[in-house]
Amino acid sequence: MNRPFPALVLAAWLGLGVSATRAAEPPPIESAPEPPARPALMLIEADITDMDRFREYTVAIIPIVQRFGGRYVVMRGARDDLEGDWGATRIVISEWPSMQAARDFWNSPEYRQAVTLREGTGTFRVTLLETAPPPEAPADSR
């Protein structure tokens, strides 16, 4: 009759120094650190039909954007359409610490309340874009 050889006896016989009460635990596996979150851009195309009411919305959301870590990188200013018919479409771009920070803003109760001020003031298209990773460091040329 073949019986399994007890693991502790085998380990002791092989000189692995395993105590009789508990087998040695393998060292913890170190996981690679998470890469830092990349910044995100929120791109808004707006065809505004009621500028007076839309201004109320912009005044209300600026402090909310700032509270969630966002900042406007394009809001007003010169524009030079190089290709295509952009018509009166306005472009607004805000930068965020991460995609999650932008989503937290977008879904926050403060913003959800403020966005009601925008209703009926135009047509809007909004997308969230993760920025490209930083370029690789050049190889040492020594």
Written overview of the protein:
- With 142 residues, the protein is of the alpha+beta class.
- The chain is extended, with a radius of gyration of 29 Å.
- A 4-stranded antiparallel sheet has the order 2-3-1-4.
- 27% of the residues lie in helices and 20% in strands.
- The protein has a domain at 40-79 and 87-130: Alpha-Beta Plaits, CATH 3.30.70.100.
Can you give me a brief rundown of this structure?
By secondary structure, this protein is α+β, with helices and mostly antiparallel strands. It is 27% helix and 20% strand.
SSE map:
Layout: H1 7-13, E1 40-48, H2 51-67, E2 71-74, E3 90-96, H3 99-107, H4 109-114, E4 122-130
Antiparallel strand pairs: 1-3, 1-4, 2-3
Question: What are the segments in which pLDDT stays under 50 over at least 5 consecutive residues?
Answer: none
Q: Structural class of the secondary elements?
A: alpha+beta
Radius of gyration (CA) equals 29 Å
- Architecture (CATH level 2) name of one domain: 2-Layer Sandwich
Total E-strand runs: 4
Cα end-to-end separation: 68 Å
Short key terms for the protein model shown above:
alpha+beta, 4 strands, about 140 residues, Alpha-Beta Plaits, 4-stranded antiparallel β-sheet
